Amino acid sequence: MLGRLYENQNCSAARTLELVGERWSLLILRDAMFGNFTRFSQFQKSLGIATNILAKRLDDFVTAGLMERRQPGATGEQADYLLTQKGQALKPVIIALTAWGDKWVQPGPVVFESNFDGQPVELQLRRAGGDEEVAIADVVARQR
């Protein structure tokens, strides 16, 4: 059985799961990315997550550099949790998981579009430095 950490795994996917693999983590990030949520209360209301778990996840994201916490300007206001560039770079992961779920589980209520022209977007596998698409069956993993 796997523990909370994947210390014996020499794998980037395992190290990433240490940051975002806990229950609720990707949904919090999804709401920050696509719902523009920044406040604790927004995340809590959207997800119905226990406040202690949400606080822990947000603190962990700040510690990992996925979000930054900005203190409120006025007394009594909530802090803002803003995605960093590192956090925003997980956007393709959310898009890929959603596309997989739409195809293999059940279509969901959202589609991803370009903010520029409203056209649908999709993730594709391409050869590095080129435009040639690569079939998923042709992708293998090799040691560096």
TrEMBL record:
Top-rank taxon, per record: Bacteria
Keyword tags: DNA-binding, Transcription, Transcription regulation
Pfam families reported in the protein's UniProt record: HxlR
Domain (HTH hxlR-type) ranges: 11-109
Organism name: Phyllobacterium salinisoli
UniProt name for this protein: Transcriptional regulator
GO molecular function, one term: DNA binding
InterPro entries to which the protein is assigned, alphabetical: HTH_HxlR, WH-like_DNA-bd_sf, WH_DNA-bd_sf
